Amino acid sequence: MQNENTAGRKGISLILLIGGIALLASALVLDFMGSEMTFRGAMLILGALAVMAGCYFFPTTKHHRKIINVLFLFPLLFTFGVTVIIPLVLGFFYSMTNWNGIEFTEFVGISNYVSMFKEPGFVWSTLITILFVVFNMILVNLVGFLLALLCTSKLKGIGFFRASYFLPNLIGGIVLGYIWQFVFNNVLTQITMKLTGNQNSVLSTTKTAFMAIIIVYVWQYAGYIMLIYITGLTQVPKDVLEASQIDGASRIATLFKIKIPMIASTITICTFLTLTSAFKQFDVNMALTNGTGSVADFMGQYLTNGTQMLALNIYNTAISKNSYALGQAKAVFFFVILACVSLIQVRISNKKEVEM
Hints:
The chain is mostly helical. The chain is built from 14 helices and 2 strands, in the order ααααααααααααββαα. It has helices at 2-32, 40-57, 64-94, 111-117, 120-151, 158-166, 173-196, 206-234, 238-246, 251-262, 264-279, 283-288, 310-320, 324-355, and strands spanning 295-298, 301-303. A hairpin with a 2-residue loop joins β1 (295-298) and β2 (301-303). α8 (206-234) packs antiparallel against α11 (264-279) and α13 packs antiparallel against α14. The longest helix is centred in the middle third of the chain and has 32 residues, at 120-151.
């Protein structure tokens, strides 16, 4: 009797699994083909539920715990697949077509990638984005770490300082960009006019405007990184610090020989966050300068996008110029760069953690 029940449950679970997978595949194919059938969403949900039920009722003792764990993770994995993995795969495909944002009529291969590398504005945006990332990885981590040291010292009103330093991170990038645009174009120009007689704005030239974007980004993001460093510094064992004081170690020696090596994992997290965030910089760049700035001669052309970083360049290509296929190709290139740099950075940081 038990064998018959097991066989019956196994048959039901297999039917549910096969039917669920078939419904999922059919719904995705219909969506990809642009079908106007309104029950595609219902098919997708029913297919997912059928797969979950099939896994749950599958008669196994050895792997039952793993199946239950997968079922609990399934909603998250399903959402991740639908919102990230599938759009990523479609993005790779659309970058090799003449997609106009709605449909495509021709497969063009790598011509979009060839066109973007022949575009001086895109190459310039890539170069200044890399430069922006390098500056900000150093400055944000340095300022954030120094603020963390200050906020973990024995000062009165330290809670006020922590909240004050973190406050800029709560302001949206667009609002922040317009606030600092007012500061640079009005407040600072009035001050420099009284001091030097020069009323030129910081945002009037490409070099100084690029420096202004870096300043605003550091001001915004350093407080967030500070909180992570504070968490790391407070986890350093107090008995180790007390032992170093008894041995006569100076504050500088304690910092470089004890605190920094013991928060190596925190440094890895902070450098990774600043790297990815700086690469994806968009809102402050758009609100502060909108990418404007003159470059006299680059690849034989005069450029007007001297402060336009990569994310804003992709946005303008797809939305402003209505060139979705080319914009998608740039986005794929952006993803590849970001993934490679992130993996290399994490690998190097982890190796340093082991050495420390």
